[in-house]
């Protein structure tokens, strides 16, 4: 039963125009360049990309991208469009700057912890030295005082 529902849903999906053609009020044919990347059930995905880049620019960008890289290009455009709509001034650059600050902060924390570890190792080595020295003194005293 589940398999039959899946086949029916796939057929219905094939009959629906892609989100791009639906938004642009076009007839979606089998050769639609945008259909594989903007399915009918994800209209917001195309809407944001269309709002930021424009449909013709998306098509132009896809035409110059190698076949194996098109899906990544679309994902990148969708991510940039969402970021640009969230933050019209900085877009993805704002996210990158925030992440760079986080990395710098974490690197500072890492350096502090590494210094603490180094200090702990030095203290351990000094303690071990002191204990070894005390053991040698105890052995000397035991050897000479027990007679």
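-> sequence recovered:
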């Amino acid at each position: 039963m589940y398999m039959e529902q899946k086949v029916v849903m796939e057929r219905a999906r094939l009959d629906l125009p892609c989100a791009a053609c639906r938004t642009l009020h076009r007839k979606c044919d089998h050769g639609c360049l945008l259909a594989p990347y903007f399915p009918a059930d994800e209209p917001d995905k195309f809407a944001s990309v269309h709002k930021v880049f424009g449909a013709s620019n998306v098509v132009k960008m896809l035409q110059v991208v190698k076949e194996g890289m098109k899906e990544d290009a679309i994902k990148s455009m969708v991510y940039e469009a969402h970021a640009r709509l969230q933050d019209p001034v900085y877009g993805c650059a704002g996210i990158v700057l925030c992440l760079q600050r986080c990395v710098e902060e974490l690197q500072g924390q890492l350096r502090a912890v590494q210094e603490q570890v180094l200090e702990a190792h030095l203290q351990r080595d000094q303690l071990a030295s002191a204990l070894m020295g005390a053991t040698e003194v105890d052995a000397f005293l035991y050897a000479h005082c027990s007679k």
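The radius of gyration is 33 Å.
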